[in-house]
Amino acid sequence: MRVNFKVNGRQQEADDVWEGESLLYVLRERLGLPGSKNACEQGECGSCTVRLDGVPVCSCLVAAGQVEGRDIVTVEGLADFARQRSESGCASGACGTSLQDAQDWQAKGTDSQTGEGTELSAIQQAFIDAGAVQCGFCTPGLLVAADEMLERNPNPSDADIREALSGNLCRCTGYEKIMDAVRLAAARQSEAV
Amino acid sequence: MDFLRPASWEEALAAKAEHPTAVPIAGGTDVMVEINFDHRRPEYLLDLNRIGDLSEWEVGEASVRLGASVPYTKIMENLRAELPGLALASHTVASPQIRNRGGVGGNLGTASPAGDAHPALLAAGAEVEVESVRGTRRIPIDAFYTGVKRNALAADELIRAVHVKKADGPQQFSKVGTRNAMVIAVCAFGLALHPETRTVRTGIGSAAPTPVRAKTAEEFLNAALEEGGFWDNGQIITPSVAKQFADLCSAACNPIDDVRGTASYRRHAVGVMARRTLTWTWESYRGDRRTIEGAA
């Protein structure tokens, strides 16, 4: 079957989708967006977290057919999504992340400094600055989940952060640095206002 | 496999009548796991996400009509006052991502003895509204669970809503697991005080082939509270009464040994949770009584 839906602000179309396929599979294998990670396939690990009409969900547990006509944000579009949010809307009229840009997206700049030269969201920059990335597999899911929490709750307590990220597992067990990163992003966010 | 996408409830009922083997999918948090792991290859998937009515709730005079697909997150955020037991249980479901998708309809459809909503529904008192092209009926929650992962639904029926009695007293929910998130209950316990009828209701999860009430324990406690005038005098429940209640709750279990825990551990833990939830709710009842009397 064919599925039409919005990914990172742009209309996309996935063809030859099997009816039992997950949104995660469509994103990774049909649209070439491997940012959302495939690990447990049962909603335990949160590595595949995306926003579905703004709500964080495990994309491995959403059937592809269920996203027809709906709006998805993946980690590849997070920087643009966060920028639009801070500008409260799409000022330039040319927002969203194209499939090509999303496929090519990487947190690697023009020189050796990770992230430099690439547009990053505040939470992505904070993860880099706090050293919250070890093997990196859980990072995309954490970024999407943490970004959504900061949107709802700009001044989270440690308990709020733990609760919001309780569905994201890190097997390197780098949770302390992840906590640091979210605190850092929150602090920078409140300073900017 | 065919993916059926009814745009309305009537279309969904027609589709289910035509294809009784169709598997309904709403949040997908149970169904997609089975498909991802190749445990299930249904001929038809019946997507209920486009039926907006299923994600809505209405607070009525005596009960809340909770749409089958209302996500747990919404229950936690919006129905804490009306359905405190279910709101507490909802908060223990998996993780934020899962609570954003899963709802009570799915818990009832899967009818796993470990479903977190069941003890709360049993304790509060609820009816499941199911419908087919043949008509609507309401199944009392006590008659809904018929076996391990079996329920009273006919092949052509779909769960539309659950009607849960609004709390008329304190309610509690307790669950045993290895951590606070992403836990399938080793066992769980729900307790609701109903001061209006001077009764106590319970619900036990994950400690029998189906979710069950501890009816003998309820009868004992109802009689003991009545006899001692506890509802009126608001005194602390006698430890021997609480102990007897806990023992009877343990006795209501019919658990198995499995990877999550042994039968004897479950029996023991249910007793501990019964005593604790009774203490918590009773203390809260006594506090409320004092406040009311103090104000009057």
Automatic annotation (TrEMBL), chain A:
Recall the GO molecular function terms of this protein's record. 2 iron, 2 sulfur cluster binding; metal ion binding; oxidoreductase activity
PROSITE patterns reported in the protein's UniProt record: 2FE2S_FER_1, 2FE2S_FER_2
Key words of the record: 2Fe-2S, Iron, Iron-sulfur, Metal-binding, Oxidoreductase
What Pfam families does the database record attribute to this sequence?
A: Fer2, Fer2_2
Can you give the residue ranges of the 2Fe-2S ferredoxin-type domain?
1-78
User: What is this protein's name?
Assistant: (2Fe-2S)-binding protein
What is the organism field in this record?
Answer: Streptomyces cahuitamycinicus
TrEMBL record, chain B:
Stretches assigned to the FAD-binding PCMH-type domain: 1-169
Q: Which is an annotated Pfam family here? A: CO_deh_flav_C
What are the record keywords, sorted? FAD, Flavoprotein, Oxidoreductase
In its UniProt record, a GO molecular function of this protein is:
oxidoreductase activity
Q: Which PROSITE patterns match?
A: FAD_PCMH
Q: What is this protein called?
A: Carbon monoxide dehydrogenase
